[in-house]
Amino acid sequence: MKARRLLARIGLGAGMVVLAASASATADEQKVAKLGEPAPNFTLTDTTGRTRTLSEYAGRIVVLEWFNTQCPVVQKCYRSKSIQTANEKVRELDKSIVWLAVNSTSSTNAGQNTMWIKKFDLGYPILLDVDGTVGHQFDARRTPHMFVIDKEGILRYHGAIDNNAFGDKKLDEATNYVVNAVQQIVEGETVAPDYIKPYGCSVKYKN
Amino acid sequence: MQRRWQLASSLAVSAALLPGGAAHAQLGASAPGDSRGDGLVTVSLLCGSNPIGPGQTFHLGVRFDIMPKWHMYWKNPGAGALPPRIVVTAPAGYTVGDVLWPRPVAITTPLGPEYGYYDAVVLFVPITAPATLTDGTVSLHAFIQWTVCREVCRMGSARREVVTATSSRAGATAPTVGPGGPLAALWKRLPAALSGLTAAGSSFDGTTLSLTGPAGGMTSAAFFPVDAPGITYGTADITIRQSRFRVTVPVELKPANAAGEPMALAGLVTLGEKPDDPCYDFMIPLAVEPPDPTRKADAPRD
What does the pLDDT look like over A140-189, one tens digit per residue? Predict the structure, then answer.
């Protein structure tokens, strides 16, 4: 009920954003993501200027990681390597998996994110969503906030990356919900849990 | 000298905090907040008794002094960041209980309400001493982590220690943190149990949580849910009529998202607007069927 209320509110916000700022968004791209339904398509540019569209990864599992270089929780996750380790583990489960970080921080820029990629030697791109359109489409509320989309384009999990908000557990003792979801998708199982409240900083949207 | 300075500093903190400046509380180390918190929070550790008697339950008070306009979080941050975390280390034989959280305030944000604290807050940690003690001292340690936010969030952490006397004789001490002690004004901000309130009640019919009780002359009330995996609270409907409050909240359960943990509805009803106005907590354990791990995923959709 709360989720529906929040989605309704964010949906209204997203609609306003689309009208104001995203002339290129199609009807499909204006939808709000819901568990068990096709994830809304989007088109964003990464830090190198390359255009990335969700639909180009059809037939592959896609992990979206909402992200902010300025968020101390994100910084903690990267310092502890919880996100990088999850990335490695899901690639072991499915070599074709796609991992995209999305930065919806209104004040971010390509240079800031490029430095992050170099600092942590990331093997995946960071997409820039400065106007927040895609963040609102997915109702991304925190950084980190994770989304797992299956090969059919269905959203199967969203929420926390793990149960280690305070970093007090060793990586191999924590439950990583993204790895869990990807493993269940690969094995044809129901994804459970399919939602765990994400922890971290609120997404610093433009509006 | 070091200990004496720390004590004097802590006493000053306490005196500023209390009505009438009761400065005789037994206090522990006090120092500026951890540098990663950019000095936005100052943490003090206060010990609840001096001396501690055998088998006595006393409280540590962890006080956070927060830079103006910044805030920290209640145990459910709502749409906010992380609540503070306190890990107390005590010698063998001492039992450390769960943190007690004072009444929070709701903070409106574009992404929904956050629940937390401005200015200053004391979180209490109950500790029970072993049944047998010798005359001497005990050292209690706390590792404290926090997130403090304004437009941005900062994290901090600190380690604090408090040394207090122990006594082999029971009943030789008066509380300094907790009910009846000089920090009673802060203790009063902790919720009382709704179940202990006359003519109050809580129930859950599978879809709706209902809470009722006397309003005690208050004309406003609020509901603060405690987050739990697998439980989603809807918008609370709150009324006060004929000096009674009634809170009804739609609840959606999804046991598969509970990650194997026992499920329980829990939260807080606050009356009035002031920090010292009454507030009541409740918990309703739920008996729910665990998810079937052998169930396969639905067929892919066209």
Answer: 999 999 999 999 999 999 999 999 998 889 988 999 999 999 999 999 99
Residues 113-142 of B with CB under 8 A from A: none
Cα B28 to Cα B17: distance, rounded to the nearest angstrom: 15
Q: What is the DSSP letter of A134?
A: H
What is the amino acid identity at position B34? D
- Structural domain for A39, as ranges: 2-202
Which token pair is A108?
């971010």
CA atoms of B235 and B252, how far apart (whole Å):
11
ipTM: 0.78
Check B257 against A175: CB less than 8 A apart: no
Binned average pLDDT, 10 residues per bin, chain B of 302 residues? 32 33 29 53 87 90 95 94 96 96 93 93 94 95 94 90 90 60 76 94 96 95 95 96 96 91 95 94 86 46 38
What kind of architecture, by CATH, is found in domain B2-187? Sandwich (2.60)
* B192-285: CATH architecture: Sandwich (2.60)
The total domain count for chain A is 1
Copy the structure tokens of residue B169: 């004789």
Closest-CA distance, A188 to chain B, in angstroms, reads 6
Cis amide linkage into residue A144, ω under 30° from 0: yes
Q: How far apart are CA A160 and CA A171, in angstroms?
A: 15
| CATH number for A93 | 3.40.30.10
Please name which of A193, A201, A127, A164 lies closest in space to residue B257, comparing C-alpha atoms: A193
**pLDDT tens, position by position, A23-51:** 344 545 567 899 999 999 999 999 999 99
Has residue A207 been placed in a domain? Answer: no
